[in-house]
From TrEMBL:
One of its GO terms (molecular function) is metal ion binding. InterPro entries: Phytyl_CoA_dOase-like. The keyword Glycoprotein does not apply. It comes from Penicillium arizonense. Belongs to the PhyH family. This is Fe2OG dioxygenase domain-containing protein. SUPFAM superfamilies: Clavaminate synthase-like. Its cofactor is Fe cation. Keywords: Iron, Metal-binding. Gene3D superfamilies: q2cbj1_9rhob like domain.
Amino acid sequence: MSGLTESQVASFRENGYLVLPDYLTPTETNTLITETNNLLRDFPLDTHPLTKFTTGDGIDESTNHVGDDYFLNSGDKIRFFFEPDAFSTEPDPVTGRAALLKPKNLAVNKIGHSLHTLSPPFKAVSLNERNAAVAKSLGFTDPRVLQSMVILKQPSIGGAVPSHRDSEFLYTDPPSAVGWWYALQDASPKNGTLGMWKGSHTGRKGGHIKRRFVRKGDGGTEFIENTGPALPRGMEEEKVSEPSDEDLEILDIKAGSLVLIHGNVLHKSEKNTSDRSRFAYTFHVIEGGEGWEYDERNWLQPPAGGFSKLESCVQV
């Protein structure tokens, strides 16, 4: 388990993302899809609070942020969050609750946020030596895994994710997050694939973390201005320009591929208007070593035992 090659690391550091085709075997990919479908089938609907997943898309947005207890206490659980467009505008006449327009398995936006500890199939592809070697290649000294989730992008209603940087949501001082994003199904421009702004993680392209998604003091969540370090340690501070449309690459990703996503790189995905779903599994890795502090205001807080160590038997 040697991790990434020098050229792969160089590409990641230049662009802010790296696509690794065939990272999962077809058997691993199919096992994760089966596990996802089983989870969608088995969760109870009658006791579910029908939490919808939405974060809003701006610092000044004061509403439209997910932030109920079901969401905020999901860091060490497997929970289910619905697409806003999966509901009727009128309540169910019998129960008085919001009425789904689709079967529950076709209405969920994502499953999270501790699949990497509670689901054996997802744990097997997350907490392993291969990923530890990749993390070491990227310079992590004490990599910790958090916020694992399946993002479903349901046919015709899979919502768009506005442009953002992952370290806005999982802030460490200084920033250190990297996302592991596995395509469980083919992801193309037709069904809401990733759009990445090349080089937008750097100071030269305005890659500073300017805002943060945090818990509000009186409950719920909000975006606030970031007053701490805005770039990872050792990155260029000089700002030359903001990312432009010329920097945007719309990825075409085959099932089984892994996309590594720098926590400061600007990226998005569009709404899935096709008749094909776009399942992806993702988790994040942050630096747990001395000199990096996970912020106590982040929406996701560590469980009692701390975030999962990504350990390796690799000899160096």
